[in-house]
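tool=predict chain=A
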Amino acid sequence: MTSNPAHGVNALIRGAQLLTRKELRPFIIIPLLINLVLFIALGALMISQLDDLGRYIGSLLSNTPVDTSDMSWWRAILAKGADWAASVFHWLAWLIAIAVILLFFLAYGYLFGIITNIIAAPFNGFLAEKVEELLTGHPPPPESIGSMVFRTLGRELRKLMYFLGWGIVIFIIALLTSWTVFIPAILGALWGAWCMAIQYVDYPLDNHQRSFDELKSVLMRKKFTTLGFGGAVMLAKMVPILNIFVMPAAVAGGTALWVERIWTEGDPGKGPNGMNPPGASKRIENSNQ
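tool=predict ok
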């Protein structure tokens, strides 16, 4: 049972390819329209903040020499010393500036993703259902539209509480280690990738009414593949315009990832047509010995 980040990246590409299938087009239109409206609204908000961001970055990178002509000799020495120290550590200002820019786009990507996922959750559930049927020939168990809408919205809130709860813990750790610059960046990237994988691989499992704890266990079985998929989705969501099309591709890709690489290679739970994957019972038997 291999776990490879490249498999996760390929799953997102596969999801984008699946969207070209005519059977799926009716289930893509509404999520794309929702994304377009939110992209315009959040894009306008982001643009309104660019001036302040530019001024802050400029202040970090400014290296104006100190004028000591009107200073006493001892103040001039102190000023020159401070100026020298600032020039020595000027490289750190560049790192901070880059981190601030990445954080700005990361926050934009997270905000865009959270809002669109909550609003489009029922439509994403339908899309995942049709992708699974296209790949396996078997749809998930039948369910009324009303029941599915309420269940998927409840599941989105459950995921949001999980993201926020652990996100606060990650933020505190990052704050305490912020002097290293790199630790918060690595933690943020790993957490973001894990959240994106949970978000989009959840739709097919939720269609089979499998619990949130099962979802996390399933993804941990192929943690590197999971992080590769989530990382690819996260990076794509940070790119304006591209992020309009990422959500349906991620839903299709997450479904394909579960069906083709996770369920068939180690997920012992119920899958397409209510069946366990080939050899699952034997794997469960061996794990209990």
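The mean pLDDT is 77. The CA atoms of residues 193 and 234 lie 6 Å apart.
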